[in-house]
Design brief:
The complex is a heterodimer of chains A (461) and B (110).
Chain A lengths: L2 H20 L6 H19 L7 H24 L5 H26 L6 H28 L13 H21 L7 H16 L7 H23 L2 H24 L4 H6 L9 H6 L10 H9 L3 E6 L1 H5 L3 H13 L3 E6 L9 H8 L7 E3 H4 L8 E5 L8 H4 L18 E6 L19 E5 L2 H14 L1
Parallel strand pairs in A: 1-2, 1-4, 2-3, 4-5, 5-6
Helix pairs in contact in A: 1-2, 1-9, 4-5, 4-8, 5-6, 5-7, 5-8, 6-7, 8-9, 12-18, 14-18
Chain B lengths: L1 H22 L8 H11 L3 H10 L4 H30 L21
The chains are: A alpha/beta (461), B mainly alpha (110).
Chain lengths: 461, 110
């Protein structure tokens, strides 16, 4: 490798770091992503011209690019904003798969008795890469509703997963220390795939973002390991950056849900549909339903309205309708703000993306800590397609699975309007006592339809 | 010789861990999803590795592995950057004069 390639990799690494720094602020985030993309182009541009391609090599490189570029670009362009989390999972999974394949190929080239410095990172990359690949596909399937979002569990599951993990470790040690031929990587690859599936199946759909973030960090580490195998600094630096920042991001996400990472991964969260919380609230209580006209009038004559958007809003594609309602209210002098729970939508920050799509200025989007004290002085908390993030059970019902998760204090508002499709519990599968609160009015129906009716009602009021 | 290069690689690895932790410690929640997506694109650097192994492929198994690696890695890197850009394109501040808000905004993502 010439000195110029090394220097180009250094420039690429610096651009990745600068890109990540710029990604930390809303104003510069887009530029940050573009800076990282420039780094990627530089790393690729420095690598390719100096390679001694075989004829087959040049053909498969071009064919691979010709197949991969449109899939990636069209997939990313066409995906609905509501489906972003599973798309990220998919892109992450293929990256993990690529890292594993690269390690397999390089291990084969080295022949029998590879040196420890090659064998160890190869094995690491194969295992972690295949876990990430299979796990990401399961995460995708759950969020895309190809598989049920509720945890899939069976007796002794943790033991089976533990045995699987142990088998992988034993096989890996054998491969590194004893094996003379690299064919033994095949069972290792298969076991990695099985573990990826087995490990994500028992995790509920609501926790998928945390899992995707963790698998993202895994892929980063697998890429770094492949970098060790190939002796390539660009892979080592970029992969490690992602591994480290992804690990931290995973912690931040589970913190936002008020739960430990261990609880997310092994708690089979969301199976308890008839827990102690529902026993105290569901039976024999009735809800109050309102007409769009009543609620429209209530909103029109309020001083301050806080909108609490949830995934139901996004599913109904109601972002534009909610913006229209907010504009209509602001025209009448009503103060409107949006309260964004850290895990609103399907992953932290997802709701901001969805509302930004509808041109809601991000200054109006208030994070939980900023706005929670304002509910007391709010006339109406308008909960659109959200549920768990305003469930008081998180604060006062120690038996509830979401106990300890920070929530938005919508219950402190003078009036609460719940817009829901049905009485069905939220994504976490837990009943919400706030629905039965005397201050609460329900407006059933598709979020977008209901919002349009409210806009008409506010205009008429 | 091999030992020094391994040590160099390891040094870079350890330093990159610290930088990775340091650069993202101050990210607001609203950027968590774009950040995850952005880092996801960065590990698309595996495309460099995929092309390295594809370049020298000669026997059928290596050709298959090389092709698979290049396809997967390309999807990762292209999809990752494009989808992140699409998300961030929508983060705009409040415009100085708010245009007529009742019409649904035109789709900015192509």
């Amino acid at each position: 490798m010439t000195i110029w390639v090394s220097l180009a990799y250094l420039v690429a690494a610096v651009l990745f770091i600068l890109g990540l720094i710029e990604l930390s602020s809303p104003k510069s985030a887009r530029r940050g992503n573009q800076i990282a993309a420039v780094g990627m182009v530089i790393a690729l541009g420095a690598t390719i011209p100096l390679l001694h391609f075989t004829t087959a090599g040049i053909v498969i490189t071009i064919v691979g690019l010709v197949i991969g570029v449109p899939i990636g670009a069209i997939g990313a362009r066409q995906v609905k904003m509501t489906a972003i989390p599973q798309m990220v999972a998919l892109f992450n999974g293929v990256g993990g798969g690529a890292a594993a394949v690269v390690a397999v190929s390089e291990l084969l080239l080295k022949g029998s008795h590879p040196a420890f410095a090659v064998a160890f990172p190869s094995v690491f990359s194969i295992v972690i890469g295949s876990v990430s690949f299979a796990g990401s596909l399961i995460a995708f399937s759950k969020l895309q509703a190809l598989l049920t979002g509720t945890p899939i569990t069976y007796p002794g599951q943790q033991i089976v997963n533990g045995v699987l993990a142990l088998a992988i470790v034993a096989l890996a040690i054998y491969l590194i220390a004893v094996a003379s031929t690299p064919v033994i990587f095949v069972p290792l690859l298969i076991l990695g795939l099985v573990l990826g599936v087995a490990f994500v199946l028992p995790i509920g759909g609501a926790d998928m973002p945390v899992v995707i973030s963790m698998l993202n960090a895994f892929t980063g580490l697998a890429v770094a390991a492949s970098g060790f195998v190939l002796g390539n600094f660009a892979l080592i630096v970029a992969g490690t950056l992602v591994g480290a920042s992804g690990t931290l991001l995973t912690r931040l996400m589970s913190d936002a849900m008020g739960r430990s990472l261990g609880n997310v991964l092994f708690g089979a969260f969301g199976t308890v549909t008839a827990g102690p919380a529902s026993a105290t609230s569901a039976e024999g209580k009735s809800v109050r339903t309102g007409t769009p006209e009543d609620i429209g009038t209530l909103l029109a004559y309020s001083r301050k309205v806080i909108i609490v958007p949830g995934y139901g809003l996004a599913v109904a594609q109601g972002q534009h309708a909610v913006k229209e309602l907010a504009d209509e209210l602001e025209k009448r002098g009503v103060e409107v703000e949006y309260a964004i729970h850290p895990v609103a939508g399907r992953m932290p920050g997802h709701m901001n993306v969805l509302l930004a799509e509808a041109n809601v200025p991000y200054e109006q989007l208030k994070e939980m800590d900023q706005i929670n004290d304002e509910f007391k002085s709010t006339d109406v908390a308008l909960v659109v397609g959200a549920n768990d993030v305003v469930n008081p059970a998180a604060e006062n019902s120690p038996g509830s699975p979401i106990y300890g998760m920070p929530i938005l204090n919508a219950d402190q508002a003078k009036n609460i309007v719940f817009m829901k499709r049905s009485m069905r519990p939220g994504f976490a599968g837990i009943d919400n006592e706030l629905l039965y609160d005397p201050k609460t009015v329900m407006l059933f129906g598709d979020a977008k339809d209901s919002l349009m009716k409210l806009v008409a009602a506010v205009k008429a009021a | 010789m091999t030992d020094t290069s391994l040590l160099n690689e390891f040094t870079v690895f350890v330093l990159a861990i610290f930088i990775g932790f340091e650069v993202i410690s101050k990210v607001p929640t609203i950027l968590h999803t774009p950040l995850m997506s952005g880092t996801n694109a960065i590990h698309g650097i595996i495309l460099v590795g995929a092309i390295l192994i594809a370049a020298t492929a000669s026997d059928p198994l290596q050709i298959v592995l090389g092709l698979v690696a290049v396809i997967l890695a390309t999807i990762n890197v292209v999809g990752g950057f494009v989808v992140t850009d699409r998300m961030l394109e929508m983060f705009k501040g409040r415009q100085p004069a708010k245009p007529a808000p009742t019409t649904p905004p035109e789709k900015t993502a192509g």
